[in-house]
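Per reviewer request, we include the raw input and output of the structure prediction for the construct analysed in the revised manuscript.
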Amino acid sequence: MNAPLFTIGQSVSVAVSKRYRFPEGAYHIVAAMPNGDGPTLYRIKGDLEKFERVIDEMHLAAA
């Protein structure tokens, strides 16, 4: 497994794509999860949401 690029609590933005249609706004890393040989998965939470989402590392950017 590769080392995660983002740390817990870090602010990130989600890249717009057909696969992920997240509302715009700030998100924070809640946890990093292993994904076998693929990119690291992250649990993220939006400032205006009451739930968490899961997204892979390649769709995130530091805010």
